[in-house]
Amino acid sequence: MIKIAKRYRFFFVLAAVNMALLALNPVVGQKSLSITWNNVLEMLSVLPPIFVMLGLLDVWVEREAMIKLMGERSGVMGVGLAFLLGSAAAGPLYAAFPIAGVLLKKGSKLSNVLIFIGAWSTTKIPLLLFEASSLGWDFMITRLLINLPIIALIAYVTEKTLSADEKVQIYNTADDLH
């Protein structure tokens, strides 16, 4: 019971804050509950397809294939695939992290997984098209050309600054979550 309470402590704190707001200021409390409920519904609409995709990725893609495509010796192909997967993805950024965990579990290089997360957050194709239509093609292309090397640089610097023990801990955590 204590383990469950510890695992869901943020949920319990949020519920307590919402109840306190409802008791102290009903108008604000109702607005808070409404926002919370809308967020829960949004997550429930996004997460099931992500978990189906995770299951398929876990079953269909062999570890050896992932190591070849995005592992330590994947080189430019691994970087390109990481950018492509992140840019073609759909959904909010929080959906990228379970996928990143599966990529780590399957043997992807840490920097490639970090590139995937960076691409998911900044180079998604719908975002680029929106920018091009509302801010212009020059802005979109300039931002993209700045973001691509910066994402790769951040990923490589992050990987190089982590110790071997920290990397092992990251990979072990990914294995433990799935």
From TrEMBL:
CC per GO annotation: plasma membrane
Claim: Transmembrane helix is one of the keywords in the record: yes
Location of the protein in the cell: Cell membrane
Bilayer-crossing regions: 39-61, 81-104, 137-157
One Pfam family recorded for the sequence: ArsP_1
Membrane topology according to the record: Multi-pass membrane protein
Keyword Transport: no
InterPro entries named in the record: DUF318
Coiled-coil residue spans: none
Keywords attached to this entry: Cell membrane, Membrane, Plasmid, Transmembrane, Transmembrane helix
UniProt similarity note: Belongs to the UPF0718 family.
The protein's name in its UniProt record: Putative membrane protein
Provenance organism: Peptoclostridium acidaminophilum DSM 3953
Lineage of source species: Bacteria, Bacillati, Bacillota, Clostridia, Peptostreptococcales
